[in-house]
Amino acid sequence: MSSSDAPTTTCQLRILATSDLHAHLAPYDYFADTPSDRVGLLRVASLIRAQRATAKNVLLLDNGDLIQGTPLGDRAAETPIPHPMILAMNALGYDAATVGNHEFNYGLPFLRGIIRQADFPFTVANVAPVTGAPLTPPYVILDRAVVDDNGDAQTVKVGVVGFTPPQIMTWDRGHLLGKITAEDIVETAHRVVPQIKQAGADIIVALCHSGISDLPYETGMENAASHLATVSGLDALVTGHTHLTFPGAKFAMTEGADVADGTLHDVPTVMPGLWGSHLGVIDLTLAKTETGWTRRAHQVSLPSIYARNAEGSVSATVPDAADIADIAQAAHTDTLHYIRGVVGHTSAPLQSYFSLVQPDATVQTVAEAQRAFLQTVLADTPHADLPILSAAAPFKAGARGGSTYYTDIPQGPLATKDIASLYLYPNLLFGVRATGAEIFEWLERAAGLFNQIAQGAIDAPLHDPEFPTYNFDMLLGLTYDIDITVPPRFCNQGMLLNPTARRIYNVHHNGKPVTEDMEFAVATNNYRAEGAGKFPLTFAHPPIYEGSETCRDIVAAYITQSDTFTPTITPTWRIRSIGDTTVTFDTGMGALNHLDQNGNGRISDTGLRENGFARLRLTL
Ligand code: MG
Ligand code: MN
């Protein structure tokens, strides 16, 4: 920079960002029907206002996965206008937003309606229409009046560009195929960022609905934020999708990440958790040059709506924003009414506290419902004679969802909220045809949940915390054993890690060993059938059933077809008993109420508690 007599003009710009709100508006857990201090735009609104109160120039952005994730979101999808999340965001004065993968779950016409209702622009650069009008512009330039550090009025042009995982074309294929295409995030950025500069942006903020991964760059990769950060010209980066927090200790070893400085390859970066847990704050100091404003300095912070107490419980750090609560009230009341509606009865509790250590009734109920449905729809088709299996996984099993993130339905009436707890996502039921060889790989991929355990180990942690529980598919209709003394065949991301390793053995169907050339029909959801989760499934055929029915509706119909539903647990899978070995796993405190009826005496309480979880011991 050349020397000059005139002091440089500087100004401060504060960028606030939410991500992965997932239709969490009120601080309420609709599945448990109880208030929650961990969620809700109502609380984030108070953080937003506190941040605005201490800054002159503020932008407020959302990074996607906005409209899906709670019964409130499902209700809003049935009665589309006006959407309560958008009403609240309009009131909060959002400046721009991008679309997450879940924005596509209810189809494009609904999403277009959402975009129309917003008083702020949506932008996504790596999605293009096959024909017709684009869903959103690839980027927007916000021409903002600001006050500089001398108190003088100035204008800053902020380019905002959005990115969403190209995997939407797989995950919502039925909604999107032939209508839109999705491109690689990094390639798109290389193309678009210079255009945004050309169009006059002083600085550029990327809304990247994609996570920060240690994987090397690969075209079309899902979590591409680290690689996006290397594209020159970005001044701030909002990441998300994986529901983690950045800056955060978890990323201390990530290449290019500086968690003390809050940067990814020197670009100030945030990832604001999940469901409104955090607000991303990026403070930029901009300096005026001959060519416009440039980023001079930065500071990154990530305030939370709650604080964790010593014993693992949490308490709110901020109150509800009263005016936003008023806006949310009608939708909240309607959602409470909806979730409390009794639709059936269960003769036994349905709880998921042990779903990662042994077969359980919550996963089995889903699998049974899917199997019965597929059986019906395959009758009179060429596939009718195939033996039917059904794949299901624990969705609510603690982990990143926290220590209260379990299904826990007592014996007695079943309400809509209970059905929603059994099947969280608006997935569709699909059927695939799979060989025995594919079935073995499917189960090996799922068995990556478990750490490798040496015989004789004492209290070794059983689970790989990086393995998403929704990828722990079990296949109802088979029986099989899992040998966790063997290393995992696939890593937790789905890469083949140990080509000679086999954890799955003793696989039987109707008492007969399963062979590689046997064929099965498998009930699953559209995600898995289309390849989500990097399962090593190379189905020779397209899906044999591509339904428009949601798995949740199928589960609801199945368990309400009789006055009282009787949950069953089939010993589908078991961890191989190896002797003289104990492992530990973390589960919700509610598990302690069910300890006597579970684990056949092999599960006991260590007495240890961490972050609200109870640590239990399993004797192998
Ligand atoms: Mg997402
Ligand atoms: Mn999300």
The low-confidence runs, each spanning 5 or more residues with pLDDT under 50, are: none
The radius of gyration is 25 Å
Query: Which range best describes the helical content: under 10%, 10-25%, 25-40%, 40-55%, 55-70% or over 70%?
Result: 10-25%
Write down the overall geometry.
Answer: globular
Tell me the fraction of residues in β-strands, as a range.
25-35%
Average pLDDT, rounded to a whole number, is 94
The biggest beta sheet is recorded as: 8 strands, mixed
Structural class: alpha+beta
Number of strands: 36
Describe the structure.
It contains 14 helices and 36 strands. The N and C termini lie far apart (67 Å). Strands 7, 8, 10, 11, 12, 13, 14 and 15 form an eight-stranded mixed beta sheet that branches. 22% of the residues lie in helices and 28% in strands. By secondary structure, the chain is an alpha+beta fold. The structure holds magnesium ion and manganese (II) ion. Magnesium ion (MG) binds at residues 65, 100-102, 209, 241.
Topology at a glance:
Elements: E1 10-18, E2 28-29, E3 34-35, H1 41-53, E4 58-62, H2 71-78, H3 84-92, E5 96-97, H4 108-117, E6 127-129, E7 139-147, E8 153-163, H5 168-171, H6 173-176, E9 180-182, H7 185-198, E10 203-208, H8 225-228, E11 236-238, E12 245-246, E13 257-258, E14 263-264, E15 267-272, E16 280-289, E17 292-301, E18 306-308, E19 314-316, H9 322-340, E20 342-346, E21 350-351, H10 361-378, E22 388-392, E23 408-409, E24 412-415, H11 416-422, E25 428-435, H12 436-446, E26 460-461, E27 474-476, E28 478-482, E29 504-509, E30 512-513, E31 519-525, H13 526-529, E32 545-550, H14 551-559, E33 573-575, E34 582-588, E35 603-610, E36 613-619
Parallel strand pairs: 1-4, 4-5, 8-10, 10-11, 11-15, 22-31, 26-34, 28-33
Antiparallel strand pairs: 1-16, 2-3, 6-9, 7-8, 12-15, 13-14, 14-15, 16-17, 18-19, 20-24, 21-23, 22-27, 25-31, 25-32, 28-29, 29-30, 34-36, 35-36
Helix pairs in contact: 2-9, 3-9, 10-14
The structure holds magnesium ion and manganese (II) ion.
The site of manganese (II) ion has 7 residues, from loops.
